[in-house]
Amino acid sequence: MSAILPSTLQSASMRACASAPPLQVVLGPYRLQVQFLEKSQMHDRRRLACVNVEDGRIELRRDLQGMRLAEAFFESIIRLSHFSKGCQQGCVEEAYTHSFATGLVEFAHRNPAAWMWFNLLLSEHLSSGARYDRVVDGTFAPPPKMPKRILVGGHPVTIRSITKTESGNAFGWYHFSRQEAMLYRGLTGSNLAVVALHELTHAVHHMYDIKQRDKHGNFRHAQLKGWLRIMKDNPSAWRWLAWVISFPAEASLEPRRPTAKPLLPLTARSQAARPALALASRRG
């Protein structure tokens, strides 16, 4: 019988594993090896990163370090998310929005060590003192609270919880003219993470002038640059989102009673079952 490690030891073990880049990424039906290659060995020598599905690997340039590495890896996750969900040229903005949101949550749940590694890179090279890795490994206390306002592409966007009457038959809305993301206050678990990412990605597309039917590359570029800037400009907001993604059993917009049980990082939980991802929230 295997012993259960105390939460502090589990966090330390998780941090040790996350100090090295991931060996593979699992998303949708794909299981891709992560390989660092010379420029001459890349599937596309013009790129810093390639999602090479035919050869079963994510290729990263060997000379990448710091934020260049974090950005190239994040771009690969965005590409693989859309590819695995069939989101391609011709899809509408709503499809790209939900593909990003569900893809990022699925990536975190199915690849906890890679998720930790990515947030560790962000903490070290994007936003000094942000401690995103501490949030993901469960050692950041108390749990972060939902922000009321964030900057998206340098523009203020408000976030507020709404009642069932206000939300109607949707989990959330993004109001373009008011630049406001609204989340149903009864949201919990992975659904909270998905809907929050979904509505804020509408805001990203809005601020980056993405059209309802835009080029595939424009959607990817806006999501990459827009979300990296959110992570940089809004440390408290990304801490909240990273916590909600990492601890779905505790995630809720409604106040919950304190629990004596320690929070377990994703690597300490059973990964036998894939996360149940929510249906798309509808946009206002």
Please write out the topology.
Elements lengths: L6 H12 L5 E4 L2 E8 L11 E4 L4 E5 L4 H19 L8 H18 L1 H14 L6 H5 L12 E4 L2 E8 L1 H4 L4 E4 L4 E5 L4 H19 L8 H18 L1 H12 L38
Parallel strand pairs: 2-4, 6-8
Antiparallel strand pairs: 1-2, 3-4, 5-6, 7-8
Helix pairs in contact: 1-4, 2-3, 2-4, 2-8, 3-4, 3-7
List keywords for this structure.
284 residues, alpha/beta, 9 helices, 8 strands
Question: What features would you describe in this structure?
Answer:
The protein is α/β, with parallel strands linked by helices and 284 residues long. Helices cover 43% and strands 15% of the residues. It has helices at residues 7-18, 66-84, 93-110, 112-125, 132-136, 164-167, 189-207, 216-233, 235-246; strands at residues 24-27, 30-37, 49-52, 57-61, 149-152, 155-162, 172-175, 180-184. Strands 1-2-4-3 form a four-stranded mixed beta sheet. Strands 5-6-8-7 form a four-stranded mixed beta sheet. The N and C termini lie far apart (52 Å).
**Relative strand content:** 5-15%
The quaternary organization reads as single chain
Helix amount, in percent? 40-55%
Tally of extended strands? 8
State Rg: 18 Å
Biggest sheet, open or closed, and with what strands and sense? 4 strands, mixed
Strand order of the largest sheet: 1-2-4-3
Separate helix tally = 9
What spatial form do the alpha-carbon principal axes imply?
Answer: globular
Low-confidence stretches: 1-9, 269-284
In round numbers, the mean pLDDT is 88
Distance between the termini: 52 Å
User: Order of helices and strands, N to C?
Assistant: HEEEEHHHHEEHEEHHH
Find the structural class using helix and strand composition: alpha/beta
